[in-house]
Specification:
This protein has 173 residues and is mainly alpha-helical. The protein folds into 2 domains: 102 residues, no CATH class; 44 residues, no CATH class. Helices cover 56% and strands 0% of the residues. The protein contains 7 helices and no strands. Bound molecules: iron/sulfur cluster. Iron/sulfur cluster binds next to helix 1, helix 2 and helix 3.
Length: 173
């Protein structure tokens, strides 16, 4: 499926193999509703209608499961994203974001991003190939048994209490 006037990015040959278009578990809204993302019609469209369309496209992107990687892909692939909305951004916003990336990471910011991605993948692969040792797994299991499931945030007092319980459990084990 393609957006009217804008080729579907997932069907592009990837110009930079370090940044493939992200995989989506389900069809994205720009694939199922390409008209919402088509800003190629210049004349005959009122400003209000265009702003409404932009707001709809942005709302769709903000609920998209691959928005973060879509933005990175759109920023890196400048020539393929000259028009239209990608990851809730307009072409002008993407130009500003690219400039900000260059200010923060240097002129070779795409190389920096690629290296970060490579390092992250290597860490994930290493974690997969280096499972927890028996004693690490024992500590994790014991922590769950004693302290229960981990809440999102812990107060310092909760942290201290959990640690004390865990140490006591380790001594007793
Ligand atoms: S973030 Fe928006 S443009 Fe990117 S894949 Fe999702 S719906 Fe499409």
């Amino acid at each position: 499926m393609s957006r009217a006037g804008i080729p579907d990015p997932s069907h592009f040959p990837d110009p930079d193999p370090r940044f493939p278009f992200p995989h989506s578990p389900a069809p994205t809204r720009c694939q199922t509703e390409p008209a919402t993302f088509d800003f190629s019609r210049g004349s005959g469209v009122s400003r209000d209608a265009r702003e409404g369309q932009l707001a709809r496209a942005r709302r769709a992107c903000s609920a998209c499961p691959i928005v973060k990687d879509c933005l990175k892909w759109a920023l890196v692939n400048k020539d393929l994203t000259k028009t239209g909305v990608f990851a809730a951004t307009t072409p002008l916003q993407r130009t500003a974001l690219r400039k900000r990336m260059a200010d923060r990471l240097g002129p070779d910011w795409t190389d920096v991003l690629a290296e970060r991605d490579r390092a992250r993948r290597a860490r994930v692969a290493a974690a997969r190939h280096n499972p927890l040792t028996i004693s690490q797994a024992r500590i994790v299991r014991l922590d769950r048994e004693i302290n229960g499931p981990m809440p999102k945030t812990l107060t310092p007092a909760q942290r201290q209490r959990n640690m004390a319980r865990l140490m006591a459990g380790l001594k007793a084990a």
